[in-house]
Amino acid sequence: MIVGMSLTNGEISGVAADMDEGRARERDRRYVWHPWSPVGGADQDRPVLVSGQGYRVRDAAGREYLDAMASAMNASCGHAHPALIAAAERQMSLLPHFDLSVGTHLPVGRAAERIGALLPQGLDRTLFVNSGSEATEAAVRIAHNYWTNKGEPRNRIVTFAAGYHGTTYVAQHLSGLPTNAVYGGEPFPVTRVRPSLPPRELRRPEALPVLVEEFERAVLDGTPPAAVFVEALLNVGGGVILPDGLLRALRDLCDRTGALLIVDEVFCGFGRTGRMFGFEHDGVAPDLVTMSKGLSGGYVPFAALTTTEAVYSSFAADPLIGGLRYGHTTGGHAVACAVACAVLDVIEERKLVEASAVLGEQLLAGLRPLLDHPEVSDVRGLGLVATVECARPEAAADLVAGARAHGVLLRRQGTAVMAIPPLVIDESGVAELVRVTGQALAAL
Asked: Burial level of 203, CB count in 10 A (0-12/13-18/19+)?
């Protein structure tokens, strides 16, 4: 029974049928195409989730799990947060949305103002879209058009080969990950930096000059690039922590060559790494920032791109409309903007950024002893992102399966097993996460 609702007998029967795990699996098997999954894969292994509260979720059979995936890495404020639900309901009752190319609405201005106040001075012009992939598409288009607007066309982009910026065509083209290979002609040139050091060594100070040299070579060899486009932490690329000072060195490199610095904060932004944004660890100001995931807490699809007034004002030179030729039907959706403002309130009121730093240290300290296991090659982390890198993909898969059997949902990226809990997790949740991960590893 849903609180506050009066259901007929037929509706009650329907809810009960939906809660039947076997029926739900059969319907899922028959009609749903799951992304990033083998066709005809082991659908019996997927949890059929029906509810959540805080940092826990429950499946159709009544089993409870600690959500160490933060849903899709975006449940920053946890599940069923009353303030976020109320914000969505309130805005839906007023105005769900309106076309921003024709008019505007109150939540979009509030959301843009709030984001601008969090970013370094000068980053205050925000475009809203629906996903991190769309934010990437917009960022690349803006970078290319910026140089055209200046009368100095540039179109080459420099990225990490193990970077991940989404799965639209342009976003996949930026990546060198095998799963992101695109088909057809290359829409623009991309130079992908493949570090000569393994992931477990990249966070060390001695990796900095090596990486800087590799990026300098990528930027300086060839036509001047339009932009350098990097994540603050390589998420899908294996939960890889980069050395202190890399973004600062890339900022200097971009300043010398004129290239724009684009930082992808889709995963790291809004507290995930123990700072509001991942680039804050190096104290730099990018030219463009892409954001999503934690911005709306997973309650509604939402993403943003923020840039400088210099980049924005260059579009007055566009010969057709004197502005940006890019947008989506539901970009800047009023409900999503209202929820995002509520998310920022929760982050501030509960001091979730500070909590991410403190609890992240506890999580990493608890997981470090796993390095003694022969199947573990590295343990690393930053804020509430912790990675246990296994020696073999099979060991990583078994670790995830074992943790799930004991009530913890972990995320796997190849040989990397990642713990990414909601920022609202507490000390007891961190202790449980550490204990169950250790038990699952010991059972391998």
From this structure: buried
